[in-house]
Structure formats: structure tokens, C-alpha cells
Design brief:
243 residues; alpha+beta; Glutaredoxin; five-stranded mixed sheet; 14 strands; 26% strand; PRX-like1; antioxidant activity; oxidoreductase activity; Thioredoxin_domain
């Protein structure tokens, strides 16, 4: 007799997380070990049994607004060019995004990130994306695949590879996607004014993607208005640190 696992509401996880479904035979072929049943888990007759595996999510950490943008020098796999913070000195604002290829939270926003950045880059915003994931654990996030991704989605911004992960640490980044918006007044260094979410949409919460939170912050910076300090953290996959 086949079994179906049903978890009682007292131990259900957040429904905002993306869900992957595998049959028992598929899970064994993928290398997952058998799971012990929680005391509140009930086995009921059905066919076939499915295992529900949820991706862990991470929130961006609070950052000090007004802090300076860290220096960096990173290669762009698509072109081979090495970019640094100085390359953006002529712009009034800089958006730094930590993204990657595989994360479902990034995939959920990817096309809209391209639309938003295209729109604001035409209005004077500088944009750079950085991937800091370890290729030892996630080879699909390596430079070769980053170049393919940038070409496939026509990224209008440079997509840089942080192999050492030092740049992620310098910026205090912990998840993908993560958004840091800096403003620049004259010869003063870039100063952080926004470190928050793209919008309220998540891969499985059925909220439309609008880019509202980030758009409002960019609009204020480009128009010379202050950005409210109350900001919702970005939510996504954890950066995959070197083992």
C-alpha cells in the first residue's frame, strides 16, 4: 500500500517559500536520504507518496545608511573587462545587485530586473550585478554560465564574478537577490541610501512583480529627494559560501 505524508498545520513551513516535489524513487536517485517522520505527521493511504522539499530563504541584514560603497575590482565573464568602483564615479547614483543564475528568487524577478534597470539607466542610474556563489558547490553559477546568462537575458549592466567572495563580505551581502542603492553628491563618495527589497512579490505568494520598493527609492535619489529609512529587507537564497 502506498503512503502519503500529510504534515499537520502546527509544523507547516511558510507558504512563501518555493516548493520542489519529488517521488520517493526520484528522491533516492537525486541523493536525498530518507526522512524521519515528525510525531505529528500522519501516513494515509494514497498513491504515489511525494516528498515536499522547501528551499531555505535568507533576509538581507540591516546596513548602516550613509556608509560608503566599498572599493572593488572584478572581472566581467561576458567581455573579460575588469570593473571597479571608479568606473561609475561620473554617475549620480549606483545600484549594486547581488544575484546568481540558479536561485528561484532571482529567476522570479530576472526579466523585471532587466526592465527596471533598462528604464533607469536611460535616466542616469549606474548599475552593476555581482555573483559571489561558490562554484565548488554550485558550478552552474560559474563564469562560463554567467556569460551565457548575461547574453541570454540581454543584461544592460555588467555582471561580475566575485570568486574570492571578499566583495560580498565588504558589502555585507548575504542573499540573492540583494539590492544596495548609493547616491553621489559631487565629489563626495557614494553613500548608501537604500538596502531593501525589489517589491513584495515572492516565487509562490501570487503577488505581482512591480519593482515598487526599489523604483520609489531610485526615483527619489535621481530627483534629489531623501529616501525613507524604513525599508523592507530583501528575501532570497543565501549566498553559497566556499566550503
Amino acid at each position: 500500500m502506498a503512503l502519503k505524508l500529510r504534515v499537520l498545520p502546527s509544523i507547516q513551513l511558510s507558504t512563501a517559500l518555493p516548493t520542489l516535489s519529488f517521488s520517493l524513487s526520484q528522491s533516492r536517485s537525486l541523493g536525498f536520504r530518507a526522512l524521519r517522520l515528525h510525531p505529528n505527521t500522519i501516513a494515509t493511504p494514497s498513491s504515489p507518496t511525494r516528498l515536499m522539499i522547501r528551499a531555505a530563504r535568507t533576509e538581507s541584514k540591516a546596513a548602516t545608511l550613509g556608509s560608503r560603497a566599498p572599493q572593488f575590482q572584478l572581472p566581467e565573464p561576458l567581455t573579460g573587462k575588469v570593473w571597479s568602483l571608479e568606473d561609475f564615479e561620473a554617475y549620480p547614483a549606483l545600484l549594486v545587485m547581488f544575484i546568481c543564475n540558479h536561485c528561484p528568487f532571482v529567476k522570479h524577478l530576472k526579466k523585471d530586473i532587466v526592465k527596471l534597470t533598462n528604464f533607469y539607466m536611460e535616466r542616469g542610474l549606474a548599475v552593476v550585478a555581482i555573483s559571489s556563489n561558490s562554484v565548488a558547490t554550485h558550478p552552474q553559477d560559474g563564469p562560463k554560465f554567467m556569460a551565457e546568462e548575461a547574453k541570454l537575458f540581454s543584461y544592460p549592466f555588467p555582471y561580475l564574478y566575485d570568486e574570492s567572495q571578499d566583495v560580498a563580505r565588504d558589502f555585507g551581502a548575504v542573499c540573492t537577490p540583494e539590492f544596495l542603492l548609493y547616491k553621489k553628491d559631487g565629489r563626495r563618495p557614494f553613500e548608501l541610501v537604500y538596502h531593501g527589497q525589489f517589491d513584495d512579490s515572492r516565487p509562490s505568494n501570487n503577488v505581482p512583480v512591480t519593482g515598487r520598493d526599489l523604483s520609489l527609492a531610485i526615483d527619489r535619489v535621481l530627483s534629489g529627494q531623501p529616501v525613507p529609512s524604513e525599508q523592507k529587507p530583501s528575501v532570497g537564497c543565501s549566498i553559497k559560501w566556499h566550503p
